[in-house]
Amino acid sequence: MAADRTIGFVASEAPEAKKALAELKARYGGVPPEKAEIMVVLGGDGFMLETLHRYLDRKVPFYGMHRGSVGFLMNDFNLNGLKERIARAEPIEIHPLEMRARDARGQSHSALAINEVSISRQGRQVAKVKISVDGQVRLPELMADGVLVATPLGSTAYNLSAHGTIVPLGSNLLALTPVSAFRPRRWRGALLPETAQFHFDTLDPERRPVAAVADYTEVRDVLTVDVRQTRDVSFTLLFDPEHNFAERVMKEQFSA
After folding, report:
1. Average of per-residue pLDDT across 28-50
2. Which range of residues forms the domain containing residue 129?
3. For residue 109, is pLDDT > 60?
4. Is 215 known to be catalytic?
């Protein structure tokens, strides 16, 4: 990664992120994000996801530095040697999920998800969902608080909190994970090829309304949801060699 490429800085509202933004701009200058060849993102994982969505059309690499509450996607913060760190950073290309949902009014909605697409109950009663994969019904009825499809990048987020399997980058897999399954109680989810296409039908939607969420985009009262990985969109994240994202994923799988 060339060290002389123009850098744009963006920061979350966290005080430490704002302070880092001022210090980095004073030392390195920088250009507006709309003109940057490399984006330096200051904050936590949530802000990184917001930034990726906001600058979806920029098609530039994103280098994160941890100035937030969670920093799995971020490099360590250091004011020194930023351009040199970017020059030797290792790129990881990721492809998001595409969600297409149809609601009770017959309207269609589409959105992209870098972490996961989740389907969850809107009211007090558990959701009832039929799950099909590649056109074949695999689970005629899941009764649960919800179910989600997670990318490898997102498998350490909501998926992990729901006791889903962590998916290493480069595994070419997606995680299908139930959230507080009531029936079948013993079903713990599945790992599917990244080429898998998921279809979810809401059962009894009037009594058991369901919402679908692709990262930050929520669609309420959904009847059907289709999820697949799209190869038409990609993001590039930059990591310090010593950050070693794959090693962090490995350690997370053996953490207590």
Report:
1. 93
2. 97-229
3. yes
4. no
